[in-house]
Design goal:
By secondary structure, the chain is an alpha/beta fold. It has one domain (4-235): TIM Barrel. Helices cover 39% and strands 16% of the residues. The protein contains ten helices and eight strands. The chain has an eight-stranded parallel beta barrel with strand order 1-2-3-4-5-6-7-8, surrounded by five helices. Strand 7 (194-198), helix 9 (206-210) and strand 8 (217-220) form a beta-alpha-beta unit. Helix 1 (15-29) runs parallel beside helix 2 (44-54) and helix 7 packs parallel to helix 8 (175-188). The radius of gyration is 17 Å and the shape is globular. The protein binds 1,3-dihydroxyacetonephosphate (13P). Residues 8, 95, 162, 167-168, 198-201, 219-223 line the site of 1,3-dihydroxyacetonephosphate (13P).
């Protein structure tokens, strides 16, 4: 199975950038099949536009979050079925930038992941330790608790290991630390669940990270905003 390289655009990007990104990818791919499965999760305002621009390009489009309910009086929220209705096929849930800000516990993340599955989306479930938890040697305990508490009973999910302290910092765990975490995650998840690494993945370190056993791809933030950087990470796949 190919690796999955997913881009999380977070709160960046407007219409013109979306079109420019897709056209640059189209030109650089030149009709050839990419070395990985590709996924872009833009701001919700751009999902439908990305789906329209992508057309026959092999790029899946996803959301960055969804509500636990299919509808209701939840001002400003987006239901998973609203994303699938406009062509999304994945949805990130439980990203640390939302977990912390919105105090989302494991049960909430699990309910969001189930809502995504119920809407026909593949949830990308984010888990990862804080710097304090790492310093206290609790990383594997944190991952075990997150797997136990956040994953619905399904193989139609993706898990993204994103050490909170590595996001946006330019720092990553060592090869050995990533290998240990992903080996543990492989043992705790059902066959077929893809395990992505996320947290300061760049064109410069992607080859090393993507060569680590049990790393099935990457969830990329900043380096996914530019087509050249995103495709350089794709090219780094073994
Ligand atoms: O949060 C991330 C992906 O979801 C990682 O972001 P960076 O790649 O910018 O560290």
């Amino acid at each position: 199975m190919k690796k999955l390289i997913a881009g999380n655009w977070k709160m960046f990007g407007h219409g013109g950038e979306a079109m420019g990104f897709i056209e640059e990818v189209r030109t650089k791919l030149g009709g050839a099949a990419p070395k990985a499965d590709l996924l872009i999760c833009p701001p919700a305002t751009l999902v439908e536009r990305f789906v329209r621009y992508v057309k026959e390009l092999p790029i899946a489009i996803g959301g960055q979050d969804c509500h636990v309910k299919p509808n209701g009086a939840f001002t400003g929220d987006i239901a998973a079925n609203m994303l699938s209705e406009i062509g999304a096929t994945y949805c990130i849930v439980g990203h640390s930038e939302r977990r912390e800000y919105h105090k989302e516990d494991h049960a909430t993340v699990k309910a969001k992941a189930q809502a995504a599955i119920d809407a026909g989306l593949i949830p990308v479930i984010c888990i990862g330790e804080t710097l304090h938890e790492r310093a206290d040697g609790k990383t594997l305990d944190v991952l075990k608790a997150a797997i136990k508490g956040s994953l619905p009973d399904s193989d139609k999910i993706v898990v993204a290991y994103e050490p909170v302290w590595a996001i946006g910092s330019g720092m990553t765990p060592s090869r050995e630390e990533i290998a240990e975490a992903h080996h543990a995650l492989r043992r705790m998840t059902v066959p077929g669940v893809r395990l992505l690494y996320g947290g300061s993945v760049k064109p410069q370190n992607a080859k090393e990270i993507l060569s680590i056993p049990d790393v099935d791809g990457a969830l990329v933030g900043g380096a996914s905003l530019k087509a050249a950087d995103f495709l350089a990470i794709v090219e780094a796949c073994p």
